[in-house]
Please model this.
Amino acid sequence: MSTHSAILGGSNAARLFACPASYAEQLKNPVGDVESVYAAEGTALHQAIAFCMENGCSPEAIIDQNLSDHTLTPELIEVLSKARAMLKRLQLQFGVGWRVVTVENILEFPGITGAFGGVDLVLSNGQFVIVVDWKFGQGIPVYALTHGDGYDEVNAQLMFYGIAARAAYKNRFKNKRVILAIIQPRVRDDADWVEVDHDEMDGFQAAFEAAYLEALGKNPHRERGDHCRFATCKTTCPLWTAPVFDLAVIDPHAAALKASADGNVSDYGNFLSRSLQLSEFVETWITEIRRQAHLHLEDGGQVPGYKLVPKRGTRQWIDPETVPAELYNLGLDDEDMFTEPQLKSPAQMEKAAKQHGVEVPDELFHKVSSGTTIAPLDDKRPAADRGRVIEDLRIALKAL
Ligand code: SF4
Model:
């Protein structure tokens, strides 16, 4: 049994609310969407921290061990240690006397058969229960509470885990205040948490049941959005496939191709804008199709017209220690075999400096753009200044 339900689990709870149609759409698809979220390294880190929590050992005690085909390198141990330190600081905010209720446990969501999720960690003391979700990826920050336009929304995945844990450990939750927390050591320095009361949890539970009932009914609501990001149902969903095939959307008639570069929006500019919007859908859809075809072939399935081939190999020295002596004997010298040491990039140097506890002084580097790229108007970066771009390119070329 997977630790996360691909159809009705914590990681896709928000999707069910936003798009109840995703339930039936996902059932059509033999590929779960869990792999995208829980990559192998993340699984290894989850297992490692669960081991430490259960056995009361420090992450350093399991350095170099192999879990889920991943060696726990010093870098990964550092991530685990940071996560443990973040947890300790969180616990301290809510008192002492903590006991572990459960670690890495598959718990059912009450009232809905087949809805379950892997709850990472639940702790309790005399007054509080903390439900923790570890997130070990390098991705974007995930918040326990998001602030919308005039409303606040508790993270649906956390609520799902909190309710599943409350149902499984009723006595531990009785008369306690509930803290739901996300610990993302590669993204933040402190846990992000929210306190929820039992009425809010009841409300979420009822809403989730209602969304599930809608999902089972006729013509459930279907809506595209951020919740589609890891959804494998993109491959068949009409909201994604329709734009892919609807070439009329780009309207490539002759008049539309008239260009005007006088600073005003031309038909040609409108044509490019529509085409760029369409290309974003197409690229996302193609990525998902390729990912699923690859998985299917790797699993031994057949995709008519396609096969798996090894990626292009690169030649590597079998024993780098002995190579120079062998090649000296053949008449090659140092110049033939070794490259000059080169100054590393500011980013690489910053990483090295961090290990020495120092910072690379700002005045040693400057930022030179190598050109421009297209971004939507709501992108955070300021629009490029054409004069500045040309000057940056001139500096970049001079530095070559
Ligand atoms: S791809 Fe998005 S819009 Fe389509 S069913 Fe899935 S979640 Fe809903």
